[in-house]
Amino acid sequence: MSACPETERFAALLRSLKSRSGLSYEALARKSGLAGSTLHRYCRGTSVPQDYGSVHRLATVCGATPEELRTLHRLWALADAARTAAARAEEEAATAEERQEAPQEAEEAENGAEEKPEPGGEGQAVPDMAEPGGEGRAVPGIAREPDPEPAPKPAGRSRRRRLRTSVVTAAILAALSVSAWALYSARTPSGSGGGGRGSGDDRPLFSANCPPVIAMGEHDECVREVQRLLHAKGADIGVDGDFGPQTLRRVTAFQVLAGIQPNGVVGEPTKKALYASRVRMSVWSQEKVRQRVREVFPEVPDKAVAIADCQSFLDPLHILPNTNGTRNWGLFQISDARLRELGGTPRQALDPEWNIQAARRLWSQDRDFGDWPHCARAAGATPLTATRPPR
User: Fold this and answer.
1) Cα distance between residue 7 and residue 11, in whole Å
2) Mean pLDDT of 134-157
3) Distances (CA, A) of 240 to 223, 244, 246
4) How high is the pLDDT of residue 256?
5) Ranges of Basic and acidic residues compositional bias (predicted)?
6) What is the mean pLDDT of residues 182-202?
7) Which of 55, 107, 304, 311 pairs with 71 at a CA distance of 20 to 30 A?
């Protein structure tokens, strides 16, 4: 079982769907096109799929309802985000350990170099001066002094080490002071155009109660304010204060429509736009989407509608982030790579008419749905073997 609660909830729903279907792992593997061992790992929670397509295909074979598919997608997004965060934490920990070991190795090398005596320097034996023919005889009138004891090296090294430690400590304290000052400045209201909540500013997102950046996983009144503003602009979104996958998709869509870098987090530019922008996020109804898809795909109207429904639940503003940092956009989930080939932009891809026409262009290349292999199988279509690069 997985130690990650997000992954375990995702796996638990998969196990429930599998149990309800009454199918064995082997039967599910044949119907969904996945390996039996892969299904075992997904259901045990020891592995999370890198793309949602395989999850959707498996759930469809198990007879999942539309509501269950939405829940499954949400749980997959949370599990995928948790896996990414865990991998990043491990990488940062390894990097920190390497950085910690580097000064120690350098110090050991330095200490080793210091311990080597220089030619003719202190600590090297000097031959006794003797008169000719009187080797070992003392010089008259001059008392022989004992050899001086070597200076204690560890004390010098200790002083240098303490000095280095003091410098590093001072640097760390200075960095922490600067970070604390920056955080305080970001949270403290500003009286001169810094987006702070000054006199008469009724924008809660800029108050000291909200962090400078609001992101996925948070659950508070600041998230509720973001959702309320999106809903006021026509977005189909629940106002529950939970920054989950649906809020992530709506925030990203708003950023694209408002001309902001679509990073999916609510920083100062997005906060300002939420209050000031006149962007509208109202979209076509599902019935209008079905009708237009059938008009554009008269040869295969039902299959085309099924593909769009599988890809986006007929939501024109549906955005799906991939684990490699790319995204799929709109009704037919046009990938970043395909978008570049078609000469389009994310903003165009969120326009339902443009997205449907783009899907038509892709379909017309070979008159099949090879660009959407997972949903093509779910819709009952049989795509040709991979004749073009995967999305």
Assistant:
1) 6
2) 50
3) 8, 10, 11
4) 97
5) 88-102
6) 44
7) 304
Q: Which of 74-83, 113-122, 199-208, 278-287 has the highest mean pLDDT?
A: 278-287
Residue 236 is classified by DSSP as -
3-state secondary structure of 242: strand
Separation CA 358–CA 330 (nearest Å) = 11
Are 390 and 70 in contact, with CB atoms under 8 Å apart?
A: no
C-alpha 63/C-alpha 2 separation (Å) is: 25
The residue type at 160: R
Res 254 pLDDT > 90:
yes
Tell me what pLDDT residue 271 has: 97
The CA-CA-CA angle for residues 301, 314, 375, to 5°, reads 65
Q: Which residues, in sequence order, are bridge partners of residue 319?
A: 329
**Sign of the four-CA dihedral 124, 129, 132, 137:** negative
Alpha helices in the chain (DSSP H): 5-21, 25-32, 36-44, 52-61, 66-115, 153-187, 221-232, 245-258, 268-276, 286-296, 301-312, 336-342, 346-349, 352-366, 373-378
Dihedral (CA of 186, 219, 203, 236) sign:
positive
Residue 315, pLDDT > 70, answer yes
pLDDT for 331: 97
CA–CA distance, 231 with 255 (Å, rounded to integer):
14
Question: Does the global pTM surpass 0.70?
Answer: no
74's tokens: 């949400």
Class of residue 310 by CB neighbours under 10 A (exposed 0-12, middle 13-18, buried 19+):
buried
Distance, CA of 205 to CA of 275 (rounded, Å): 9
Is there a contact between 264 and 252 (Cβ–Cβ < 8 Å)? yes
Q: Regarding beta strands 327-329 and 334-335, do their DSSP bridges make them parallel or antiparallel, or are they unpaired?
A: antiparallel
Residues 369/376, Cβ–Cβ less than 8 Å: yes
